[in-house]
Amino acid sequence: MKPKILVTREVFDETLDYLAPHCDVESNQQDVPIAADALAQRLAGKDGVMCCLTDRVDAGLLDACPLLKVVANIAVGYNNIDVPACTARGVMATNTPGVLDDSTADLAWALMLAAARRLTEVEGYIRAGEWTGWRLKQWLGVDVHHATLGIIGMGRIGQTIAKRASGFEMKVLYCNRKPVAKEVEQRLNAKHVSKDDLLAQSDFVILQVPYSPETHHLIGAGELKKMKRTAILINSTRGGVVDDAALVAALTDGTIRGAGLDVFENEPRLHPGFLDLKNVVLAPHIGSSTEATRRAMAMTAAKNLVAGLTGKTPPNLLNPEVKRP
Ligand code: DGY
Fold first, then answer.
1. pLDDT over 90 for what percent of the chain?
2. Cβ proximity of 2 and 22 under 8 Å
3. Pick from 26, 153, 179, 287: most CB atoms within 10 A?
4. CA distance 316 to 325
5. CATH topology assigned to domain 4-99+291-309
6. What contacts 185, CB < 8 A, 6 or more positions away?
7. Contact 97, 320 (CB under 8 A)
8. What whole-number distance in Å separates Cα of residue 204 and Cα of residue 147?
9. pTM of full prediction above 0.90
């Protein structure tokens, strides 16, 4: 008998085609978010799940689904999964690292350029039919080229963001729990500094740390005050890394110049203050959302799931300490 799995959100046809020979697949192709209690019911009796950051996999869910062997997240971030709870119950947890680095870095850059050059503001102005002609002092933005870029979190995606900075001849600062290897610093022309120095010196601050209790509100009112008044903050990693209420206040009173945001606390319900502000570029958590990358993420998750359910080690196993039966 094939293992039974649930795919909690709509995926691509080729993902289902890959899964079908190996698993008995129930898929939510209607893409209706499944509430926590309904998820527990639909997962009871399943051996595996392909889930997304919108699904919370915690001890309660795992206890309600004792047959579960593999939880395959379609995301690199896995703050929606209680990995220690999985480990304690012998459940393998996997994610999708690598395949989304470039697309996610591109989106961070898109937000940075858009915020610097006020693209969403000017587009609104044109669409409203308000453009009456060229003026010298019209819609003045700030330069990205030759500016100082500060990256908080220098993992794979942080490094991919830094790589792009050389074309803009930027000075790159970063902070990380520990400095990256010297050859990586040299290749990226990046300098490790303290968080305070990074905040004080950077024209653009990009956040690229995973969300965890340690990174909750890593940027709050105090940190925003340490930034230049002309600086722009980019968050394309996870909501909750920034204290959104403090950011709304800082954007309103001019503590910093602007922001570009792809992620929010409590998304999709964002702080209403953002909607009234012109100096923030908003995107609906689309960092990895290109056709090719989302296909690759879904296929990576599917391969992790099938590997775990067929006695192999999933390529992206987060808890290798789980003993396979
Ligand atoms: C990730 O992979 O963590 C992304 O945020 C999902 O889009």
1. 99
2. yes
3. 287
4. 19
5. Rossmann fold (3.40.50)
6. 179, 191, 192
7. no
8. 8
9. yes
Instruction: Give tens-digit pLDDT for 144-156.
Output: 999 999 999 999 9
Q: Which amino acid is at 266?
A: N
pLDDT band at 296 (very low <50, low <70, confident <90, very high): very high
Q: Choose among 210, 202, 270: nearest CA to 237.
A: 210
CB of 288 within 6 A of ligand 1: the answer is yes
Q: Considering the domain 101-282 in this protein, what is its CATH number?
A: 3.40.50.720
Taking the C-alpha atoms of residue 322 and residue 12, their distance in angstroms, rounded to an integer, is 29
Q: Is 145 a catalytic site residue?
A: no
Q: What is the mean pLDDT of residues 115-131?
A: 98
CB-CB contact of 243 with 218 (8 Å): no
Q: What single-letter amino acid sits at 91?
A: V
Which atom in ligand 1 lies closest to the alpha carbon of residue 73?
2
Query: Quick one: what percent of the chain has pLDDT higher than 70?
Result: 99
Whether 53 is in the pocket of ligand 1, judged by its Cβ within 6 Å, is: yes
